[in-house]
Amino acid sequence: MKSITRSQSGEPTNKAEDIYKAVSTMIDKIEKRPIRLVGITLSNFTEMPNMQMSLFDTGKDDRQDKLNDAMMKLQLKYGKGIVKTVNELRAEKRLEDNE
Fold first, then answer.
1. Cα–Cα–Cα angle for 79, 34, 80, rounded to 5 degrees
2. Are 59 and 24 in contact (CB under 8 A)?
3. Distance between CA 89 and CA 35 in Å, rounded?
4. How far apart are CA 19 and CA 40, in angstroms?
5. Which residues form the domain of 67?
6. Among candidate residues 70, 65, 77, 78, the one with its CA nearest the CA of residue 16
7. Is the pTM of this model over 0.85?
8. Is residue 1 situated within a structural domain?
9. Would you tell me the crossing angle of helices 86-98 and 16-28 to the nearest 10 degrees?
10. Is 8 within a domain?
11. Which of 25, 41, 65, 93 lies in the 20 to 30 Å Cα band around 86?
């Protein structure tokens, strides 16, 4: 096994889509071979020390928040794979292409 470490800094976020995009960009840049484990650590998003972002802030992304809530409700009712984002479909396609 070989450990490969990548890191990236970014703007504060509580959006899974933003985190997914950052991670997939880093994974796309590494050697194409089977990966056993991917770990994600989020830290140092802002220069302001001791400031906690709220998970419940309602801001400019109200439409995205409503969409995320609707997707979560569908997944809870019908199962995790019932609704997929474009990014999830692209990731599945990449996996199929590498097999």
1. 5
2. no
3. 19
4. 9
5. 16-98
6. 65
7. no
8. no
9. 20
10. no
11. 41
Could you tell me the maximum CA-CA distance found in the chain, to the nearest angstrom? 45
Task: Judge whether 7 lies within some domain.
Answer: no
28: left (phi over 0), alpha (psi -120 to 50) or beta: alpha
Q: Hey, is 84 helix, strand or coil?
A: coil
CA 33 to chain centre: 21
Q: What is the DSSP letter of 50?
A: T
Token pair, residue 86, equals 């474009």
Identify whether 6 is part of a domain. no
Residue 89 CB neighbour total at 10 angstroms: 10
| pLDDT tens digits, 50-81 | 556 566 655 556 777 788 888 888 988 998 88
What tokens appear for 96 in the block?
Answer: 């199929």
Contacts of 85 (CB under 8 A, 6+ apart): 17, 71
Q: What total of structural domains would you count in the chain?
A: 1
